[in-house]
Write a structure and sequence with these properties.
With about 170 residues, the chain is mostly beta strands. The chain contains one helix and twelve strands; from the N terminus they run E-E-E-E-E-E-E-E-E-E-E-E-H.
């Protein structure tokens, strides 16, 4: 199964539409305008909140708690590496490794492929394609992808001093 995310440009809050491989709207995501640390909520096509992502603000490296259908799923933690982007999903045992530019990622668990992410090079706003071989892991994979996007965005803002919440990271 595949999902596609297109971030809206020039929005006061993060807004994403997540489409399936047939071009149908499957989920919508919206960040909170005012919050300490990043918070993102994902809703299914019936308006039910299915994913919540919360940044752990007091942390040396980016950390995001992932809640799926009201239950804690895991915590995405950025790892220190030299040439690649790398994350771990604590509590689940997933390892997520990206390329040098942080545009493509692969998630594995004890060598088993969970999902892959490809970021489009030329697009208006950030666009991602997520390939999920096991459809039962759809929400989990989507949540991790959105948490990675939050972490990457927070890192970019911190490097130019834009987001006050990133001061505590």
């Amino acid at each position: 199964m595949k999902l596609y995310i297109k971030e809206k440009v020039f929005s006061w809050t993060d807004k994403f539409t997540i489409k399936d491989e047939y071009g149908e709207d499957r989920y919508t995501a919206q960040g909170e305008l005012i919050s300490i640390g990043k918070k993102l909520h994902v809703y299914d096509r019936f308006g039910e909140e299915v994913i919540t992502i919360r940044q752990k603000v007091v942390s040396l490296l980016p950390r995001y708690d992932i809640i799926i259908r009201g239950r804690e799923f895991g915590r995405l933690v950025k790892k220190i590496t030299l040439l690649r982007h790398k994350y771990a999903l604590e509590g689940v045992g997933w390892e997520i490794e990206g390329n040098f530019y942080g545009l493509n990622f692969t998630a594995t668990q004890q060598g088993r492929h969970i999902f892959s992410i490809a970021k489009e090079w030329i697009s208006w706003g950030d666009s991602y394609a997520i390939d999920i071989p096991d459809p039962s892991l759809e929400l989990q994979a989507l949540a991790v992808v959105l948490a990675i996007d939050c972490a990457n965005e927070a890192g970019e803002k911190a490097s130019i001093g834009v987001d006050i919440a990133d001061i505590f990271d």
